[in-house]
Amino acid sequence: xxxxxxxxxxxxxxxxxxxxxxxxxxxxxxxxxxxxxxxxxxxxxxxxxxxxxxxxxxxxxxxxxxxxxxxxxxxxxxxxxxxxxxxxxxxxxxxxxxxxxxxxxxxxxxxxxxxxxxxxxxxxxxxxxxxxxxxxxxxxxxxxxxxxxxxxxxxxxxxxxxxxxxxxxxxxxxxxxxxxxxxxxxxxxxxxxxxxxxxxxxxxxxxxxxxxxxxxxxxxxxxxxxxxxxxxxxxxxxxxxxxxxxxxxxxxxxxxxxxxxxxxxxxxxxxxxxxxxxxxxxxxxxxxxxxxxxxxxxxxxxxxxxxxxxxxxxxxxxxxxxxxxxxxxxxxxxxxxxxxxxxxxxxxxxxxxxxx
Length: 356
Description:
Elements: E1 4-9, H1 27-36, E2 40-45, H2 46-50, E3 60-63, H3 69-82, E4 88-90, H4 93-98, H5 102-111, E5 119-122, E6 137-141, E7 150-153, H6 156-166, E8 168-169, H7 172-183, H8 198-209, E9 211-212, E10 215-219, E11 226-233, E12 236-243, E13 257-258, H9 265-277, E14 282-290, E15 293-300, H10 307-310, E16 314-319, E17 322-327, H11 332-350
Parallel strand pairs: 1-2, 1-3, 3-4
Antiparallel strand pairs: 5-10, 6-7, 6-10, 8-9, 11-12, 11-14, 12-13, 14-15, 16-17
Helix pairs in contact: 1-11, 7-8
């Protein structure tokens, strides 16, 4: 285990998130807690490393993330560069790719054999026509959050309508250009491209210029009135129930949280089995129950909502159907550092592939 930890922050020490995506954890406090635990800790901004100040090797790198698209790409570029075989990225590069990317999450679940509802991942509406789909389904933008860009589609007609409305865009200037190309363009011929025609070029250009959003289709579970958010932090499992919106099939974004209940031990067993498959100190999981089986809907290993900790009276701990509730409140920074220290300690003792 590298005793050296690099805490990578955004500008001004920002390390998301707490109450909202734009509200930072106290990166200075996390650094102090890690030093108290015996680590050598550096806190540096992303841009400092990005622009060549120092060589980073043999280091555990714990990094911030963002829901802003340009910041996401910036962070991914840097972490891909730092994934050089000597450093340990926390979380891993694969889990970084999963952040707010429901499409890659489906591939990750498949890779590690994690029980999930059937799902399909597409880049273009036309691709759905080539697949036999069992309606009804839930249509989701791969980057949507808080229940946004999530739609229930009952048949192909409904699916086509929602895809046209929400997942494809053609701006007004482009519409004018398409109209010009189709009706006012002079006939052209290119000897080096004998199969060229104005009509064919127009159709190809129309397909190329259309803005599209990647999306998934996920099996719909009828009758659900709630789902669960479970945050695993080593051997501590923070749990809340999320009630659906009124007259809606969605729980995400409804802000109807429940904390004072005893979860089914099978829920905690399932959450633990998922967590143990992922090489990460913490995992925020959205889970549902269908036909007496639990399924992983979505998950995040960083930059996740913290209400499940901040509003809870404590956490659950245990295994294999035997769980006990521990009433205790912790600061968010203490929770993150606890998970990080236990994770690094377990990796030193057991190596990758085993958690709490």
